[in-house]
Specification:
Pathway: Amino-acid biosynthesis; L-histidine biosynthesis; L-histidine from 5-phospho-alpha-D-ribose 1-diphosphate: step 1/9. It catalyses: 1-(5-phospho-beta-D-ribosyl)-ATP + diphosphate = 5-phospho-alpha-D-ribose 1-diphosphate + ATP. InterPro entries: ATP-PRT_HisG_long (IPR020621), ATP_PRibTrfase_cat (IPR013820), ATP_PRibTrfase_CS (IPR018198), ATP_PRibTrfase_HisG (IPR001348), HisG_C (IPR013115), N-reg_PII-like_a/b (IPR011322), N-reg_PII/ATP_PRibTrfase_C (IPR015867). GO terms for molecular function: ATP binding; ATP phosphoribosyltransferase activity; magnesium ion binding. There is one protein chain. With about 300 residues, the protein is an alpha/beta fold. The chain folds into 3 domains: about 140 residues, D-Maltodextrin-Binding Protein, domain 2 (3-Layer(aba) Sandwich); about 90 residues, D-Maltodextrin-Binding Protein, domain 2; about 70 residues, Alpha-Beta Plaits (2-Layer Sandwich). It is built from 10 helices and 15 strands. A 6-stranded mixed beta sheet has the order 2-3-1-4-11-5, sandwiched between helices. The longest helix is centred in the C-terminal third of the chain and has 19 residues. The chain binds adenosine-5'-triphosphate, 1-O-pyrophosphono-5-O-phosphono-alpha-D-ribofuranose and magnesium ion. Adenosine-5'-triphosphate binds next to helix 4.
Length: about 300
């Protein structure tokens, strides 16, 4: 299917997200926080956008890069691991680059790691020469092996990769790791990270040439606002003017504060957007350094 043939007839934006899995809920939540709402219930495969002409396609995550490549959808929310793997697959087959990562989204964090049996003494990548490596990500693995100048065999499995060494299918594995619990349960240990992954917004490599460009820009601006204030709080307090420098050292994650003088000029009232966790411990440290009347407020929306 040609991308242009399929996408030329649309004046609505279509975003593919995972139908059901780790990225489904956070992807929906991010889009909803960006002001999108849909008519259909969540078990449908297609959700018609109500607040904006932006529709959703609910699909298997592995299908998302291909749907963008074919012009069936315009954007997608997918793990970087899947996107980079399929980009590599296309490059290997001599196909042009048609999709790329537009934004990292700060959820679905995991690593693609090499893991070896617990009883191995790890000496480095050269130890993998001639070994069989079970993985769902053969392109990423082969690319890494090439960079290392190591020749090894990729054994491609679509699931239950961790059990392959025990079944004698492979010597080591290259799979996604987050807590490490699955590796530990299978007597494996991680020795190297090949890719740091998280959910990303994927889009076409070339900009849209029609109304979708404006829609995508609007959506990106809103998403950037949502991502920027995620985990952020507005901190308000008062402090003696001569304590402010010291106090700001305790707030390395704060944007430059807004300050105004009260009580003549000796006391300042400050407000600062802070991007890290505002724990009781931090508030107590600020109080000890001279801050008074500390208040932490949630931030709902931000438009830069
Ligand atoms: N253990 C993990 N912790 C955090 N994120 C993970 C973990 N495993 C996978 N992910 C991320 O979440 C994405 C989706 O994982 P999930 O297990 O839901 O996919 P799936 O089983 O392939 O689903 P689908 O049915 O859509 O094909 C992965 O591609 C990866 O980016
Ligand atoms: O480090 P951990 O926190 O243990 O997570 C790692 C596991 O998570 C993923 O599998 P998932 O649970 O999605 O199962 P699946 O591969 O069968 O879909 C991944 O493929 C690992 O098996
Ligand atoms: Mg999948």
């Amino acid at each position: 299917m040609s991308p242009t043939a399929n996408s030329a007839v649309r004046d609505r934006l279509r975003i593919a997200i995972q139908k059901s899995g780790r990225l489904s809920e956070p992807a929906r939540a991010l889009l909803a926080s960006s002001g999108l709402s849909w008519r259909e219930s969540r078990d449908k495969l297609f959700c018609y956008g109500e607040s904006l002409p932006v529709d959703l396609l609910l699909v298997r995550d592995d299908d998302i890069p291909g749907l963008i490549a074919d012009g069936v959808c315009d954007l997608g929310i997918v793990g970087r691991n899947v996107l980079v793997e399929q980009a590599g697959e296309r490059a290997e087959a001599g196909k042009p680059e048609v999709f790329r990562e537009w934004r990292s989204l700060g959820f679905g964090a995991c690593k693609l790691s090499l893991a070896v049996p617990d009883d191995w003494t790890w000496e480095g990548p050269s130890q993998l020469a001639g070994k069989r490596i079970a993985t769902t990500y053969p392109n990423l693995l082969r690319g890494w092996l090439r960079e290392q100048g190591v020749q090894a065999e990729a054994v491609v499995l679509n699931g239950s990769v961790e059990i392959a060494p025990r079944l004698g299918q492979a010597d080591v594995i290259c799979d996604l790791v987050s807590s490490g619990a699955t590796l530990a349960a299978n007597q494996l240990k991680p020795v190297l990270d090949i890719l740091q992954s998280e959910a990303v917004l994927a889009g076409p490599a070339q900009p849209f040439g029609d109304v979708r460009a404006e829609l995508a820009d609007l959506l990106l601006r809103r998403m950037d606002g949502v991502l920027r204030i995620r985990d952020s709080k507005l901190l308000m307090f008062q402090a003696p003017r001569d304590a402010v420098d010291q106090l700001m050292l305790l707030l390395p994650d704060a944007e430059p504060p807004t300050m105004c003088a009260i009580d003549g000029a000796d006391t300042l009232s400050l407000q600062a957007l802070c991007h890290g966790a505002m724990t009781w411990q931090r508030l107590e440290d600020l109080k000890r350094a001279g801050a008074r009347g500390l208040m932490v407020l949630p931030v709902e929306r931000m438009l830069a």
